[in-house]
Structures are given as C-alpha cells and as structure tokens.
Amino acid sequence: MKTIYTYTNGRFEPKQGTIVREFPLVLHVNGREIATLIASPHDLRFLVAGFLRLQGFVDSVDDFHMLSVCEDFGIANVRIKGELPERLKPVLTSGCGTGITFTMPVAAKLCGNIGAASPVDPAAVFALMDALAREADNYRSHGGIHSAAVGEPDGTILLYAEDLGRHNTLDRIAGEALLKRVDLNGKMLVTSGRISTEMAAKAAQLGIALIASRTSPTDMAVKMCADAGITLVGYLRGNKFNVYAHQERLAVPATAGATLRPARTVPSSPIAGVTGVILAGGASSRMGSNKALLPYKGGRFIESIYRQLKEIFPEVIVVTNAPEQYAFLPCKKVPDIFPGMGALAGIHAGLTHSGTPAIFAVACDMPYLNSDLIRHLAARADEGGVLIPESPLGLEPLHAFYGRGCLAAIEVTLLHGERRIVSFFDRTNVKKIRQDEIARFDPAFDSFRNINTPADYFSLRDGEKRGGGPLSEPGQELGRAIN
Question: Which residues form a coiled coil (predicted)?
C-alpha cells in the first residue's frame, strides 16, 4: 500500500492505495540475451513460453530443454531444441501492451533535465486535460486512439498528437518539438494512456515537469518521476485526481480554503483489544464457487485480507464451517454456533471465540480495505456495543466493530430466527460514523465494495491490470452485501 494524495474541490486528502507493478524480465535463450520483457510480475513462466511460441521459436512443450525464471534477479534462462535465427530484427509495434525501446534512461541521470518549475494551479491541469479531450476527435468517433498534448502552466496546448500507441503519441510530440524548435522544458504533459516507465523516461528526457493521465501509473513510473523531479498525476476525472509524486509542486489557492494535509504515519504495532474477524461462511451462490479462494494478487482472495488485518490486529479469526479449505492460513478457524443464520451468526461466532473485548468483522470478498480508516474507527470502538460506518448506500455492517457487550443481544436475535445483522441494533448501543468522516480517508467509499458474481470478479481483475485497486474505474460498481 502507498499513500496517495487525492485532490477534490480544492483539498488534498491522503489515502492508501495500490499501484500496478511493472517487472522487467531479461530473457536469455540458448545462451543469448534476446529481449527484456516489461510485464506484470505474475505467471512469468507462462509469459516466457507464450512469447517464444508466438515468435515461432517453439511449437510444443517438448521443444523446451529448460525453462527457468529467477524473480529475484529478473532473469529467465531458456534452452530450446531449435536454434535461434542468427540475426533477430526487432519490430516497433503500436500496440499499447508492448513495444520495443533500445535505451531506458536511468532516472538518476534525468534529474538535471527538468528546470526549476513554478508551482502549478490544479485548475490548469484540469484545463489542459479538457483541451486534450476537445482535440481528440478521432477517439470520440471510432475509439482505439490514444492522444497526448503538452501545454503551458496556464493550461493552453502547445502541441497535440494521437496514435494507436500511447508511446507513439509522445514520440510524435518530441519529433514535432524538435523540428519546430519548441522547448518542452518545464511544460506539462497530459495523456489518455497509462503512465509506464517508458513514458516517464521519455518525458524526463524532454524536461517535462508534470505528467497527468486519465488512468494509472505503474510503480516503476512513480519511482522514476519521484527521482527525476516530475509531478505525477493519475485518474484525473471530473473535479478530482490522484498525485503520486511531488504533490508539493501543485499550488492550492488559499482562497479555496485548501490545505495539504501530511500523510498520517500508520502505526506498525497491532491495535490491542480488538480481533480481526473474516466472515467466510457465505454460500457464494451467485459466484458459483468459493469467493474466498479465487486467485488474487498472487494468492487467494482471503489471503490478501488476512495479511492486511494481521498488520492491524493482534489476532485474526476466520469464521467458517469448512476449516479444511483454509488450512493455508496460520490463524484460528471457528464454526458458526448458529449454522445457517448468515453473517450475523458469523459475527456471533467471532465474538464468542475472540480473546479481546471487541472484534472488527469484515466479509471475505472485500478487496479495497483501507488500513488508515480501520485504525481510525478502531480508536473509537466501544466494547459495549456497535461502531458502524455509513456510506452513501447506508450502514455498512460488514465493515464494523462489535463489542462483547452486544453478544447477548445478538443471541436473542438469532434465537428469534432473525438473521439480518441490523436486526439486533435496537437491543444494544449503536454508534454511527458519518459519511463525511469516512470520506476523509476513503472519498470514493471503496472500502465497502465487494464481489458477488463472475462479472464482478473479472471487472476487478481487469481494473487491477489497468491500474489497480480502488483507484481503477470511478463509477464502476462492484457488489455490496447487506445483511
């Protein structure tokens, strides 16, 4: 997780978010280094095998003598039956998922390229992106076209380009600037595509002071911009954007009442007195398979949630009636005491088996938990009742704190055959946390999103590939479970 600053209506707010990763893998075949593949850091053996197959170097698994990937050093060593062509001719493609570059400038060498840039008003960034949208006629007419523009700090466009490939748009701008003798040092770049390492490196070579995109940067691009002194803005949509590097270059007018709040230092020690409880007892009927065991972030879905809660709470419990399915998790697994009574029975079981005065109960399919928000709420948890956040959709009982003092009220509710979580609220103390307080940590209320169907899951995975996490596609609604 990384602290990212979200700008909305004249205010900066820090939030925790994930950034899609790039992984450079140097490919050696039969003792020759033939390429460096820039890819996502998962299933790299499949990537290498597929690359060689589609290049025509292998036809079947029998063509491999050896296929080894060392992720620690980013090297793949392959030996195949056939011989490689004596000369390999690279082809520069326009596809956004690939392309070849013969040099990758080191960020440290680029640091001196960017002049002393003046502070930029966020309004100028919005204005330049709006101007880019007006210029992008081809994108609006038939889609599939990337666009980019460079402009002045006042938001006016100097040069514009569009192309099938996002890298090509920047190459076109660089060429036009060269031939027209336009100095790009200190200028702003806006683009419709993701900011990758190549894009960041090219911008740094040109002396660009700020890059803004409607979508995401990669982790290596963030580091390169941070090292090179480039302000990096992503997910610029509507009246908000996220800042990934050098947010101090953006000047918020004092008249807007804006303040740049420093990122809160997240305590490294677990919170005493609260147990994290993961509810894994759902039927997953709409998904068709166990949601908690779906592949996610190099493991299973529930593993990601477990790791995050383990950093926050001294104890984590999984409530499940099939503990053998979660043997890979090094924590206590407990069954429902009232089987068949849904999430309320899971909360009851978690409270009963925990060794702390309160629990934090969360569903096993909520991918965007915000550690800062959870810690903030935990500081106000009441062992005698319920602490529950509100979102624009109402109360969020599957992202709430339950004190041991409400255990009796839950039991009475279950014995009466009532299974909705909120059914016992009139029998105990309930403290509601208002939306505006939640929005300070999670403006989009992504913490409460979950997945219910295969479409939800594939949308989530596609969002991770395009830029990851809660920052993927504003307006994209995943499922929400209310019990």
Answer: none
pLDDT, tens digit, 9 for 90 and up, residues 429-446: 999 999 988 988 888 888
Q: Is residue 99 part of a domain?
A: no
Does residue 433 lie in a domain region?
yes
Q: Is the pLDDT of residue 90 over 50?
A: yes
Pick 429 or 153 by higher pLDDT.
429
Is 96 labeled as catalytic in the residue annotation?
Answer: yes
Question: Annotated binding residues, as ranges?
Answer: 279-281, 291, 336, 365
Question: Considering only CA atoms, which of 106, 104, 109, 114 is closest in space to residue 230?
Answer: 114
Q: What is the mean pLDDT of residues 89-94?
A: 52
* Residue among 219, 109, 101 nearest 168 (CA): 101
Digit-coded pLDDT (tens) for 98-135: 455 434 454 444 544 454 557 888 888 988 988 888 88
301 and 445 share one domain = yes
Q: Residue ranges for the binding site for Mg(2+)?
A: 365
SS3 of 166-192: the string is HHHHHHHHHHHHHHHCCCCCCCEEEEC
Catalytic residue (one of 96, 111, 225, 364)? 96
- Domain contains 234: yes
263 — pLDDT class (breaks 50, 70, 90): very low
Please give the average per-residue pLDDT across 443-452, as a whole number: 83
Domain membership of residue 33 (yes or no) is: no
From CA 469, how far away is CA 479, in angstroms rounded? 15
- Give me the number of domains the chain comprises: 2
Identify the domain containing residue 155 by its residue range: 106-256
